[in-house]
Design brief:
about 325 residues, Nucleotidyltransferase, domain 5, 3 domains, five-stranded mixed β-sheet, 13 strands
């Protein structure tokens, strides 16, 4: 069976999917990046490809903050940003979608869709109070598994008001509410509502949120957060069945589109390439001009696979000129 591989490498989670020719999910893997994206890529692909000798990978798409690294290790036909990947996946699952809210571990996004295309978007990559890591940290402080956070939060009868403008102040406020003896579930829902207010006041500021609204990303697993969004917005929030891997789904769909539209062959390096060898990242300061760019390289054993970070593309061009780089950025 022909399949298309989609890979979404983030700072917190790494997601992998196999899609067939009808964009149906054949298999998916969701795991923690754990600060080592190279190993996460190798582990995720190994889990996805395990015992599936009958599958033929016809194309590869990558997205996420580690998309270029994933493209280098795997060989990618399409390398796209998260905005495009999430928009493509959500529009396929919900053709009428007008607003996409995506919250991950380290950043959050809002994407406005008009007439089937991205009309506007915004991202938050600075404030931790508007991301999943904020809830992870507070759950740990309360000694609650993050998987149980949402189910406990929706039991709240009177959520407490917690300052959500800043992660530091929110944590201090939460500790104060604990010391005052507020019920744990009321504090949890208060945290959910604080994150929602932060999201809407920062990422969603000035944006017209219209229905249908789709909520995706790993944080969409938190039922308390979905409930808080519905309460504040007064709108129904749709959570896709595969909410946690929507970025990877979009990447795989883009790879399929690229391969089929160009009638070309994939540049996928093969399972053996990623499974074998030692991969290592190094950096250096280029002295070629006053910019002094920090250039990062990724090597497999002693072979340089890719360079990035050079503004003039001098180092990247050196690989392309030698014909050693199969990476295609579209």
């Amino acid at each position: 069976m022909d399949v298309y591989l989609g890979v979404d490498i983030g700072s917190v989670s790494s997601n992998f999917v196999f899609l067939d020719d009808q964009n149906r999910i054949m298999k998916k893997v969701y795991l923690r990046t754990a600060g080592n994206p190279v190993q996460a890529i190798r582990n995720g692909f190994a889990q996805l490809n395990h015992a599936d000798g009958g599958l033929c990978i016809k194309g590869v798409g990558t997205t996420g903050s580690g998309r270029y690294l994933a493209a280098t290790l795997l060989g990618a036909d399409a390398v796209k940003n998260e905005i495009t990947a999430h928009a493509v996946a959500a529009s396929h699952r919900y053709p009428a979608v007008r607003t996409i809210m995506e919250i991950g571990g380290q950043d959050s996004k809002i994407i406005l869709i008009r007439n089937g295309i991205v009309h506007d978007f915004a991202m938050n990559t600075v404030c931790a109070a508007g991301t999943g890591s904020f809830l992870d940290q507070q759950a740990a402080r309360l000694h609650i598994p993050i998987e149980e956070f949402g189910a406990l939060a929706v039991r709240s009868s009177q959520p407490v008001r917690i300052a959500g403008r800043c992660g530091v102040f929110a944590e201090s406020d939460m500790i104060h509410k604990q010391q005052m003896g507020f019920p744990r579930e009321d504090i949890l829902m208060g945290l959910c509502e604080a994150l929602v207010r932060n999201y809407l006041n920062n990422v969603g500021k000035g944006k017209k949120i219209e229905e249908p609204v789709v909520f995706q990303g790993g944080v969409a697993a938190n039922l308390g957060l979905k409930t808080a969004f519905e309460k504040v917005l007064g709108q129904t929030i749709h959570v896709p069945p595969d909410f946690e891997v929507m970025g990877a789904i979009g990447a795989a769909m883009l790879a399929r589109e690229k391969i089929q539209s160009s009638a070309g062959n994939t540049v996928f390096r093969g399972a053996a390439f990623i499974a074998e060898g030692e991969f290592r990242s190094t950096s250096m300061e280029c002295q070629g001009c006053p910019n002094h760019c920090e250039v990062v390289s990724i090597k497999r054993d002693q072979q340089v696979l890719a360079y990035w970070g050079d503004r003039c593309k001098k180092w990247e061009s050196s690989l392309k000129a030698s014909g050693k780089n199969g990476l295609q950025v579209v």
